Amino acid sequence: MPARVQGAVSVGGREAGEGVRVCDPGQGDRAFDGGLQREEAAPRGQAKADRIAKYGAMRFKEYAAQWKAGQRDLGPASSVHLESLLNIHLLPLLGSRRMNTFDHKVVEGFLQVLERNGIGLAAQANCFDKLKAILLDANRLGLFDDNPVAGIKPPQYDPRRVVIPSPEQLGQIRTAGDDSFLLVADLMSGCGMRNGEAFAVNVNNIVADDVYRITEQVNRTTCQYERLKHRKVGEYRDVPLPARVRQSIEWYADKHGTVDGYLLRHPGDPARTFPHYHIANQWQRIKKAGETEIPDGMVVYGLRHFFASNCLTHGIPITDVAEWMGHKTIEITFKIYRHLMPGSISKAAKILNHNLTA
């Protein structure tokens, strides 16, 4: 606070003692700093205004294209999936809309249109995730006064309970096709591999008698060996290798040979990777023949579900199962397979009671 000068110092014809305020010596510095801050803020404010003017008037289609170009971490299959969501669902409904006109009402209206059009919940959830990512990117540029996706309830996709074969059914299924089908069935049910990972099986990845190292997969889109899902190039997963699966690998290699260690190659051209449709076509023929006991609703991926079931029902920690299966988070593993986990509350009650009553 400015100091009052006591005494007979005259200021502007009046004595300072009459209540005249004299400037604090530091006040000039503060005034200078404030002016400097305003000068620095002015270019920043202008830059923000320029961004809003440029991107706010931009159509969603153009903005989404620029955003998509920055998604450098996407693999080929993920890029194709994103392109499909944009072209089929988002752009037809939102493509011509100016970016500065988005608010929560627009987003909610988009979701309601998807519902009225009978779009599945899984597709609705994926569409919302992508729209949310694009609008949050625009929000960081300052295009909106209020976040347009704040408070929006996303579509709730709850996948159906997985269908898993019994050990007896698995025994029939694995031998119902050709040699490649048997090998893939053993890799998926015994090591928890995804389809594409099984198609890339390599004898050189047996790193111990009971450990297989999953390093790559055959990409469905490019038909080339690619990095693993949710992994960077060079990353891998070490998974348990049951004796029967190791024997199947060795048996297949001895019978059919390998190409650079790879067991499964294109039936018509060993220089090419193993095609996804080869197993899918066999699966359809096996089901159509009706000679093999297959639980209702089971798909080929049920072989991988068998691996999770076998682990969890025998008390193997879900954290280990999530890692072996390559799930992005343990929440995914829990959501899909929680019903397979042994009832822990009753078990805990009995264990706790043992010492309480000792």
From TrEMBL:
<dbReference type="GO" id="GO:0015074">
    <property type="term" value="P:DNA integration"/>
</dbReference>
<dbReference type="GO" id="GO:0006310">
    <property type="term" value="P:DNA recombination"/>
</dbReference>
<dbReference type="GO" id="GO:0003677">
    <property type="term" value="F:DNA binding"/>
</dbReference>
<dbReference type="InterPro" id="IPR013762">
    <property type="entry name" value="Integrase-like_cat_sf"/>
</dbReference>
<dbReference type="InterPro" id="IPR011010">
    <property type="entry name" value="DNA_brk_join_enz"/>
</dbReference>
<dbReference type="InterPro" id="IPR010998">
    <property type="entry name" value="Integrase_recombinase_N"/>
</dbReference>
<keyword id="KW-0233">DNA recombination</keyword>
<feature type="domain" description="Tyr recombinase">
    <location>
        <begin position="160"/>
        <end position="350"/>
    </location>
</feature>
<dbReference type="InterPro" id="IPR050090">
    <property type="entry name" value="Tyrosine_recombinase_XerCD"/>
</dbReference>
<dbReference type="InterPro" id="IPR002104">
    <property type="entry name" value="Integrase_catalytic"/>
</dbReference>
<keyword id="KW-0238">DNA-binding</keyword>
<comment type="similarity">
    <text>Belongs to the 'phage' integrase family.</text>
</comment>
<dbReference type="Pfam" id="PF00589">
    <property type="entry name" value="Phage_integrase"/>
</dbReference>
<protein>
    <submittedName>
        <fullName>Integrase</fullName>
    </submittedName>
</protein>
